[in-house]
Specification:
It is built from 14 helices and six strands. Helix 3 runs parallel beside helix 14, helix 8 packs antiparallel against helix 9 and helix 9 packs parallel to helix 12. It has 370 residues and is mainly α. Helix content is 52%, strand content 3%.
């Protein structure tokens, strides 16, 4: 009888070991790392195959580099970091004539070069990118006024966003939450205090993107950019933007801020590991197209908030089930370009790594990035 009990215990332990989600995640990250490394060009860059606007190297490489650093492909990550450092040339930071998406390249590039393994070698180009991020803010220095809803945020403008004298007709000019959370992250993780004027203004912009239900939307100045659309009360809250807004306010006002708590409550209440949550009305294709961005941002928000492991168990299971045989992820919906497997895989890898942190009771120490 005793022997049978011991055998049963051994089998139960073996079963738990085989089903350990962290081991499954580690295998998935290794496979994904190999896939990403195989897409890297000889100069260390990543260039999109389906999208010509992402073939400059500067716009896509930082995203892939951040994901590679949480896989076993450390040599590929180092090559990508060397390429990213090259965005700062002899005449300064490369501009819109060479970089398709400057704000993303500058903010994500600063995160790559500011990572613990890179910052000593690349501090000067990292600081140059941070200065470029500051220049891209819709600030009073660039002519933006106190009554402008975009004041304090960042947008998609390929050049310094100087406010026009008349009506704002350029869609790339207004600020949005997606660009702003990246800029805030780059500055905050480099040690910029929340009292810095740039971040103080950013906090006000983020607050303008918040609804009374605790959720967030994309932009007060870009109606079509709000993927969930609007109802009689205004722009609807939805998952990816609520994660972005909550993350930004964590950096800007701290985890004890009531708006941060309300954002986390929205994410916990509406959390869905299989789709970007919220009421999208007739915009279901836009919900589908933003899935990998959603899981990437949600994982950051929930891991930083240390909200238990249920979300990580659900999200890691959903992502593991979607991984393709070659180690990649890909979205069938195309609007957000997640049909490019380098983009979808980079988002999925980062989300899985954060799930692993939560499941292991660990948390990334961002102070080490300063």
């Amino acid at each position: 009888m005793k022997r049978g009990w011991l055998v049963a215990c051994a089998l139960a332990c073996a079963c738990r070991a085989r089903s350990d989600p962290r081991a499954d995640i580690d295998r998935a990250l290794a496979r994904a790392g190999r896939f990403l490394a195989a897409q890297q060009d000889r100069d260390g860059a990543f260039r999109s195959r389906p999208y010509s606007a992402l073939r400059d190297g500067w716009s896509l490489t930082p995203l892939a580099a951040l994901s590679l650093r949480v896989t076993p492909e450390h040599d590929a990550a180092a090559r990508a970091a060397r390429f990213v450092a090259g965005i700062v040339g002899a005449h300064g930071v490369r501009g819109a004539d060479e970089v398709s998406y400057p704000l993303y390249a500058y903010a994500l590039g600063a995160l790559v070069l500011g990572a613990p393994e890179n910052v000593d070698a690349y501090r000067a180009p990292r600081d140059a990118l941070l200065a470029a991020v500051r220049r891209m803010q819709l600030s009073a220095a660039n002519g933006w006024r106190a009554d402008d809803a975009s004041l304090g945020g960042w947008g998609y403008s390929p050049v310094v966003p100087t406010r026009p004298a008349g009506a704002i007709t350029e869609d790339l000019l207004p600020a949005n939450l997606s660009a702003t959370v990246l800029a805030v992250g780059a500055l905050a993780l480099a040690g910029t205090p929340p009292t810095d004027p740039a971040l103080a203004d950013a906090a006000k912009f983020v607050a303008r993107c918040r609804n009374g239900d605790g959720g967030f939307f994309f932009s007060p100045d870009l109606p079509d950019g709000n993927k969930a659309g609007r109802d009689a009360h205004g722009f609807r809250s939805y998952g990816s933007m609520t994660a972005d807004g909550t993350r930004a306010l964590m950096r800007l006002r701290g985890p004890a801020d009531p708006h941060v708590a309300a954002g986390i409550a929205w994410l916990e209440r509406e959390f869905d590991a299989t789709r970007n949550p919220g009421v999208f009305g007739d915009n279901e294709i836009r919900r589908a197209s933003s899935y990998y961005y959603w899981v990437w941002s949600a994982a950051h928000a929930l891991e930083h908030a240390q909200r238990g492991t249920a979300w990580a168990e659900q999200l890691s299971a959903a992502l593991l089930a979607r991984q393709r045989d070659d180690g990649s992820w890909r979205n069938d919906a195309t609007e957000m370009r997640e049909d490019d497997p380098v983009i979808a895989t980079s988002f999925a890898v980062a989300a899985l790594a954060l799930c692993r942190n939560a499941l292991g009771g660990e948390q990334q120490r961002h102070a080490a990035w300063r």
